[in-house]
TrEMBL record, chain A:
One term under GO cellular component: cytoplasmic exosome (RNase complex)
Domain Exoribonuclease phosphorolytic, chain residue ranges per copy: 22-152, 155-218
Subunit structure: Component of the RNA exosome complex. Specifically part of the catalytically inactive RNA exosome core complex (Exo-9) which may associate with the catalytic subunits RRP6 and DIS3 in cytoplasmic- and nuclear-specific RNA exosome complex forms. Exo-9 is formed by a hexameric base ring of RNase PH domain-containing subunits and a cap ring consisting of CSL4, RRP4 and RRP40.
InterPro entries: ExoRNase_PH_dom1, ExoRNase_PH_dom2, ExoRNase_PH_dom2_sf, PNPase/RNase_PH_dom_sf, Ribosomal_Su5_D2-typ_SF, RNase_PH
The entry's keywords: Cytoplasm, Exosome
Name this polypeptide is given: Ribosomal RNA-processing protein 41
GO BP term, example: U4 snRNA 3'-end processing
PANTHER family given in the database record: EXOSOME COMPLEX COMPONENT, EXOSOME COMPLEX COMPONENT RRP41
Automatic annotation (TrEMBL), chain B:
Annotated keywords: Cytoplasm, Nucleus, Ribonucleoprotein, Ribosomal protein, RNA-binding
Compartment list: Cytoplasm; Nucleus
GO terms, molecular function: mRNA 3'-UTR AU-rich region binding
Major localisation: cytoplasm
Pfam families in UniProt: RNase_PH, RNase_PH_C
Protein name: Ribosomal protein S5 domain 2-type protein
Length: 259, 283
């Protein structure tokens, strides 16, 4: 099935007008959602994911607790309207279960679970729109949701997809690109530049793989900047709202003091 | 129900031995257990063991109507279920996390990487195609069932011969029995082999290849690489676990490349040897 849309044309532009190493538009919304302790709604271009984090709280099932650390539970729901064609997914769908297991094992070494023995941390992921790089978006959203919930972690986890079109590497792939070229998703911890997750399901030569792995790792550090700014902005907003108004009483006659 | 954790003396012994580059079964860290193949009397039946881990793979083919979306392609389905017979800790019919991992890995390695040419399975476009079924039975688990299952599956597919069919005119299909005409091998583009490495929490402990049960349970992360002898990586999965530098990952990829070449030669030799003992053609 050849595509008539060029993945990368001679001028260096991709099918959606981006350059080779350009990431899609990133929007982060950390406002409170439902009863979650922390939530994040994040979109990379048209791929949109909502993650709510709960915990640490009492475990629902005693048999699933560990005596020395918290249990991380991840549940993923892929909305039937998330793809171009409406497709309802079965509850026990192996692909979705694998997806959830991947997210869980990505965060297991990062969350400080040894601080909360016999507890449970729940991460509920809702995939709202899919336009490629779904795992990347889920991991980034989960990082922000966990931070928003105040769950201690050793570092951010920033994920990026990378692909290779003949010999040109590319970042942050859309559905069109993912269906056509071999690609890999890499999640990196920016402080140490160590890789937590690498997953690739398409065939790629070893030499090409080396290039794209290092490139994706460096791209993770760029995302880290954006995510950090979003967290700091949110924290600043919350701090400003929490400051009592009476603090400004002695500043001058212009100030209005509320009872 | 979670399986019981290893005892503290086992844990300490393993960790201190690994720090000195010694493994409990005498291997060096990046050594793989030698696979042993037993080919069944039927073509497409193979019993593969990696040490004490045993997996039986069985291939059979039947003719079916193709799906309307893909009238020119045959189908391949992989059936793998963990049963309490081989893996004692399974005691509920719901797929455990382990089973999901193994099934998904096999699906990616054998189906998604297009190891088997589906178009060559077409007999009559839109009406009759071959449906190849690969069944895997896990007889014993001594660690690293994924690698063993993948190896068994690929070898079984290469060992299998499907009956020869003759198409006369537009709609007549004659299936020749193996006694009339020699059966045909399946068209296999490439043979992917899977290698699993285990990482440990202590940074001084080196990563090991082909972990045993105990090593797998005490590990702090696993990485599976499936590649073929042409240096193409089909699947690479490092799902969480201890964070690693990219240099380390690339170093292990190179180790896997060397192992794949060796394993490919071993498999070719074993298949040729088995073929010589069978009388399939009379010339």
């Amino acid at each position: 099935m050849g595509s008539r849309i060029e993945i990368l044309n001679e001028a260096g532009f991709r099918s959606d007008g981006r350059r080779q190493f350009e990431l899609r538009d990133l929007t982060i919304d950390l406002s409170k959602h439902g009863e979650a302790d922390g939530s994040a709604l994040i979109s990379h271009g048209l791929t949109q994911v909502l993650v709510s984090a709960h915990g640490p709280r009492e475990a629902k099932m005693r048999s699933h607790t560990f005596h020395d650390r918290a249990n991380i539970n991840v549940e993923v729901v892929v909305a039937s309207f998330s793809t171009g064609e409406r497709r309802k997914r079965q509850r026990g769908d192996k692909r979705v279960l694998e997806f959830a297991a991947t997210i869980k094992s990505t965060f297991e070494p990062v969350i400080r679970t040894n601080l909360y023995p016999r507890s449970q941390i729940d991460i509920y992921v809702q995939v709202l729109q899919q336009d490629g790089s779904t795992l990347q978006t889920c991991i980034n959203a989960a990082t922000l949701a966990l931070m928003n919930a105040g769950i201690p972690m050793t570092d951010f986890v920033c994920a990026v997809t990378g692909g290779v079109h003949s010999t040109s590497p590319m970042l942050d792939l859309s559905t069109l690109e993912e269906n056509d070229i071999p690609h890999v998703t890499v999640a990196v911890m920016p402080k140490t530049k160590k890789v937590v997750l690498v997953t690739m399901e398409t065939r790629l030569h070893v030499d090409r793989f080396e290039e794209i792995l290092n490139l994706a790792r460096d791209a993770g550090a760029i995302l880290h900047q954006e995510m950090k700014e979003a967290i700091l902005a949110r924290s600043a907003t919350l701090v400003a709202l929490a400051e009592p108004v009476t603090k400004n009483q002695n500043k001058g006659d212009d100030d209005v003091v509320m009872d | 129900m979670r399986p019981p954790s290893p005892s503290i003396p086992e844990k300490e012994f393993l960790n201190s031995a690994l720090k000195q580059n010694l493994r409990i079964d005498g291997r060096i860290p990046l050594d793989m257990r030698t696979p042993v193949f037993i080919f069944g009397p039927e073509l497409g039946w193979v019993d593969c063991s990696l040490g004490k881990t045993r997996v039986v793979a069985y291939v059979d083919a039947k003719m079916v109507k193709p799906t309307p979306e893909r009238p020119f392609e045959g189908m391949i389905t992989i059936h793998s279920e963990l049963s309490p017979y081989g893996v004692q800790r399974i005691n509920s019919p719901r797929p455990s996390e382990e089973e999901v991992t193994i099934t998904r890995m096999l699906d990616k390695i054998i189906k998604r990487s297009d190891a088997l040419d589906k178009e060559s399975l077409c007999i009559l476009a839109g009406q009759r195609v071959w449906h190849i079924r690969l069944s895997l039975h896990f007889l014993a688990d001594a660690g690293n069932m994924v690698d063993c299952a993948c190896l068994a599956g690929i070898v079984a597919l290469r060992h299998f011969r499907r009956p020869e069919v003759e198409v006369i005119g537009d709609d007549e299909v004659i299936v020749h029995s193996p006694l009339e005409r020699a059966p045909m091998p399946l068209a296999i583009h490439h043979s992917p082999f899977c290698f699993t490495f285990a990482f440990f929490a202590d940074p001084e402990t080196p990563p090991i290849l082909d972990p045993t049960q105990l090593e797998q349970r005490l590990s702090a992360g696993l990485m599976s690489i499936a590649l073929n002898a042409q240096k193409e990586i089909c699947v690479l999965q490092k799902l969480g676990g201890v964070p690693q530098d990219t240099e380390e990952i690339l170093r292990l990829v190179k180790v896997a490349v060397a192992q794949a070449k060796e394993l490919s030669n071993t498999v070719d030799a074993k298949l040729t040897a088995d073929w010589a003992t069978r009388k399939v053609e009379v010339r």
